[in-house]
Specification:
With about 110 residues, the protein is mostly helical. The chain has 4 helices and 2 strands. It has a domain of about 60 residues.
Length: about 110
């Protein structure tokens, strides 16, 4: 059985208006969306300076997303499920096998 890892939940008013939890959750969703979009843009950027500019924006956006996630976790609005050792080993074994499928025997091309 998995164990829930979560801080005590900070209570917010239950009203039709957006509360702090709603606002942070909305911001977190937007940051995740933007990070995804910047990741795609990085894959498509052909000009090095444009790539570097987008990479900086991507990094800033990713860091903002992480700060929002941490704030939600601290307030008990995000929880995690602890995986047992057997589940971790199964995942490790599964993904370790994938690297053997890479060309050049486990290494990526330069």
């Amino acid at each position: 059985m998995n164990q829930k890892i979560q801080n005590p939940e900070t209570q917010v008013p239950k009203t039709p208006q957006m509360n702090d939890r709603d606002l942070i959750n909305d911001l977190l969703s937007a940051e995740k969306y933007m990070t995804n979009a910047y990741s795609s843009a990085l894959n498509e950027a052909s000009h090095d300076q444009l790539y570097q500019d987008i990479l900086q924006i991507f990094t800033d956006t990713q860091n903002a997303q992480r700060r929002l996630y941490n704030a939600m976790f601290q307030k008990g609005w995000y929880g995690l499920e602890a995986a047992d050792q057997q589940q971790l080993q199964q995942s490790y074994d599964q993904f370790s096998g994938y690297k053997n499928q890479l060309p050049n025997g486990n290494t990526l091309p330069n």
